[in-house]
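Hi V.,

Quick status before I head out on leave. The structure for the redesign project is tokenized and pasted below; the design run finished overnight.
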């Protein structure tokens, strides 16, 4: 979680897509109270559980299809896609960027299966570059993080 907070430190608007338990969004909201954090998940149960907690005032939790999320598309905005497969991540990326011409927001990618496919998708289709790459070992697993920004 510490590396995630470090990678997101330069961003004031954060979208935690497929937020699941909301731990990442909570850590990011608590770490910087002036930032806006949006936890998004398509599961009503997940969002209801998250909303039952005492959330920081700068965090929202919304149940919606992630591919329909309308980001602000500004330079200090980060979209986090973690803990999902590349097929799902690629569909979400296409949905978010479909109506956006001049890409400004950055993406933090940490995909469980076929991580490289999603990195290649963002690079090939949308012209994003990896600006930071990290690998973290935790509980016998290696997690890969790629911070990708438009060229």
């Amino acid at each position: 979680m510490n590396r995630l907070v470090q990678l997101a430190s330069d961003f004031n608007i954060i979208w935690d897509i497929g937020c699941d338990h909301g731990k990442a969004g909570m850590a990011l909201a608590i770490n910087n109270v002036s930032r806006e954090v949006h936890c998004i998940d398509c599961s009503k149960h997940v969002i209801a559980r998250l909303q039952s907690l005492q959330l920081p005032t700068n965090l929202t939790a919304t149940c919606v299809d992630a591919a329909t999320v309308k980001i602000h598309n500004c330079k200090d905005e980060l979209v986090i896609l973690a803990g999902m497969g590349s097929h799902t991540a690629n569909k979400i990326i296409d949905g978010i960027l479909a109506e956006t011409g001049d890409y400004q927001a950055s993406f933090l990618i940490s995909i469980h299966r076929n991580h490289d496919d999603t990195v290649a998708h963002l690079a090939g289709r949308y012209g994003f570059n990896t600006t930071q790459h990290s690998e973290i070992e935790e509980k016998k697993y290696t997690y890969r993080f790629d911070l990708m920004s438009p060229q």
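Above is the designed sequence. The mean pLDDT is 92.

G. will cover questions while I'm gone.

Best,
W.
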